[in-house]
Amino acid sequence: AQTVTQSQPEMSVQEAETVTLSCTYDTSESNYYLFWYKQPPSRQMILVIRQEAYKQQNATENRFSVNFQKAAKSFSLKISDSQLGDTAMYFCAFMNYQLIWGAGTKLIIKP
Amino acid sequence: EAQVTQNPRYLITVTGKKLTVTCSQNMNHEYMSWYRQDPGLGLRQIYYSMNVEVTDKGDVPEGYKVSRKEKRNFPLILESPSPNQTSLYFCASSRAALAGKLFFGSGTQLSVL
Q1: How many CB atoms sit inside 10 A of residue A58's CB?
Q2: B92 contacts in A (CB within 8 Å)?
């Protein structure tokens, strides 16, 4: 069965610091997508970044970047220059035909 | 505006009273799916649909039904709700199953008393 594991239930950092959220997954598939979603208190699911498994280059979106290690089945999210608005639940997700989610990491950015 | 519209946003009901949560997308997406979100468990897929008239069970389909008669609509039906179905529900769609980007509805908070 495909699984996604986020080992950090909660993290907190000071504003402007860099933080890394970890995610590991298990699959026998070779073609898939990986995502990080942000869920602020509004409950809306917001796509932060996505990575195609066939691409070796790590995806980046402004202050957000990933470290994708396909052989190790690892997909961590790095947030640089963290801002108060980054406070949210962050979910890692794996997708081929089904979307499998991690349990989430609660990230708190302190002023 | 491209969006997934989910209604209602909040719903309180009693055990056994049939209910439907609607989901509609205006992007001509083929793939649609339903998830429930529970604390500490993340999101779990209930059902998904690759196209009209094609639906498949996800990880937690028990107690739910879906239908996909039209491309834009994918309602979630609870024939006889029970308290363990109290949860936050999300509908989502994408261009295709492996298109890589899901668009989410705003969520429905369901409480079954």
Answers
A1: 15
A2: 45, 99
